[in-house]
Amino acid sequence: MPEEMRVETMELCVTACEKFASNNESAAKMIKETMDKKFGSSWHVVIGEGFGFEITHEVKNLLYMFFGGSLAICVWKCS
């Protein structure tokens, strides 16, 4: 992910997870809708603990981060 997009996405993820601390589905929806508006459509978001993934994504359009210890967030774009 380009640096500017990565920083914005990380800030968005932190904001969503703090706002919806007990509802990962609402946090993921907020992140997805914001990313679609800001960077074009087809963004996907998974938030949770203890999951694995194998995805197809556009080059330089993937972010995988941890928040607050064990909460993982995966954000990616595919066509």
Would you mind describing this structure in some detail?
It is a single chain. This protein is α+β, with helices and mostly antiparallel strands and 79 residues long. Strand 2 (62-67) and strand 3 (71-77) form a beta hairpin. The model has no long low-confidence stretch (mean pLDDT 94). The radius of gyration is 12 Å and the shape is globular. It has helices at 3-19, 24-39; strands spanning 43-48, 62-67, 71-77. It has one domain (3-78): Protein Inhibitor Of Neuronal Nitric Oxide Synthase (2-Layer Sandwich), CATH 3.30.740. The chain has a 3-stranded antiparallel beta sheet with strand order 1-3-2, covered by helices on one side. The chain has 2 helices and 3 strands, in the order H-H-E-E-E.
Strand content range: 15-25%
Low-confidence stretches: none
Q: Count up the helices.
A: 2
What form results from the Cα inertia axes? globular
Q: From the alpha-carbon coordinates, what is the Rg to the nearest angstrom?
A: 12 Å
- Give the termini distance in whole angstroms: 16 Å
What is the CATH fold-level name? Protein Inhibitor Of Neuronal Nitric Oxide Synthase
Strand order of the largest sheet: 1-3-2
Instruction: Determine the fraction of residues in helical runs and give it as a percent range.
Output: 40-55%
Family: Belongs to the dynein light chain family.
Main location: cytoplasm
Protein name: Dynein light chain
GO biological process, one term: microtubule-based process
